[in-house]
Specification:
single chain; Neuraminidase; mainly beta; globular; four-stranded antiparallel β-sheet
Length: 317
């Protein structure tokens, strides 16, 4: 069942990005890496967001892990951090249009898990996280075109982990999460201007209160955040914000089934929410420009939660 026509929608999407490199058309392929099946996984699945159906095996991460971030340019996908046998600073990458196992990209500035994701196709960002004993506030970034270690960008307004992240080509948002060892839930939405450096600024609050294990995705104008969970209580609620403004989030709709700790990404028109607590193999989708409940898309190859999800056309790229 087609969701949107990639060919007709994407005829004019080739562009010069900020460093002058010609990135081409990109792809509506979404990749879902890692996660937990009860033990950590190295599985990478993929789908084409423009057509519903079950996921297909892409390859494997270099290390099995869950609670990892995932960011993408039009051509390259990168997974950052996470935990498995230990907590990692590892970053892996793949070429989105191909299939095969991931390769080492470099390291984060510190080990961390339960991370949000954001990026603009030139830079990829993650923020906060948990070291196993300490919650963090630092924001790291990578340059997609250059393999190497992450660089510090600045800090969140408060140290926390298990946030959701989303972005358009200019602004990145980090929302919700937990702090104080997980016992206090944060409802703040922070934002940064990508391509600069400095600490985050308050954007507003999650409209229905704070929660950890938030997912997020975006179009060029609208960010979708939500579906958090805590203490065995699974979430179904999605909120939205207008990225160019500031303010509290508003109700978007519900997932097809309540669950937390999933993954979320988009091709800027359609967002998919994958896996989640249980663990689950469910893939849902929404149309970002509308509001309403999510619809079933298909299934993952392996049921899991705490997945890193990415797409080369996310956030208006």
């Amino acid at each position: 069942m087609p969701i949107t026509s990639f060919k007709s929608r994407n005829k004019s999407r080739s562009m010069l990005v900020g460093n002058g490199a010609f990135e081409g058309y990109g792809t509506s392929r979404a990749l879902f890496g890692g996660g937990s099946t009860g033990s950590s996984s190295n599985v990478i699945d993929y789908i084409d967001i423009t057509s519903t159906g079950n996921a297909t095996d892409f390859g494997d991460l270099t290390v099995s892990r869950a609670g990892l971030a995932a960011v993408a340019s039009r051509t390259r996908g990168v997974w950052l951090g996470g935990e498995g046998a230990s907590i990692y600073d590892t970053m892996d990458y793949v070429t989105i249009a191909s299939t095969g196992n991931a390769a080492d990209f470099g390291d984060l500035t510190s080990i961390r898990r339960t991370l949000p994701s954001a990026g603009n196709g030139i830079y990829g960002y993650t923020a906060g996280g948990w070291t196993g004993s300490t919650q963090l506030s630092n924001i790291d970034y990578i340059t997609f075109a250059t393999i190497g270690n992450a660089t510090n960008f600045g800090n969140l307004t408060a140290a926390r982990f298990s946030q959701g992240g989303c972005s358009n080509t200019t602004r990145a948002l980090f929302a919700g999460g937990a702090s104080a060892g997980g016992g206090i839930y944060n409802q703040n939405i922070d934002y940064i201007t990508m391509g600069t450096s400095g600490s985050a600024t308050n954007f507003g609050d999650m409209g229905r209160g704070g929660a950890p294990n938030i997912v997020g995705a975006a179009s060029s104008t609208r960010g979708i955040l939500g579906a958090g969970s805590s203490a065995g209580s699974y979430g179904s609620k999605l909120d939205y914000v207008t990225i160019a403004t500031t303010g509290n989030s508003s109700n978007f709709g519900d997932l097809s089934v309540s669950r937390g700790s999933g993954g979320m990404t988009s091709n800027s028109t359609t967002a998919v929410i994958v896996g989640g607590s249980g663990p689950s193999n469910i893939i849902d989708y929404i149309t970002i420009a509308s509001t309403g409940n999510a619809t079933d898309f298909g299934d993952l190859t392996v049921s899991r939660d705490s997945i890193g999800a990415l797409c080369g056309l996310n956030g208006g790229l």
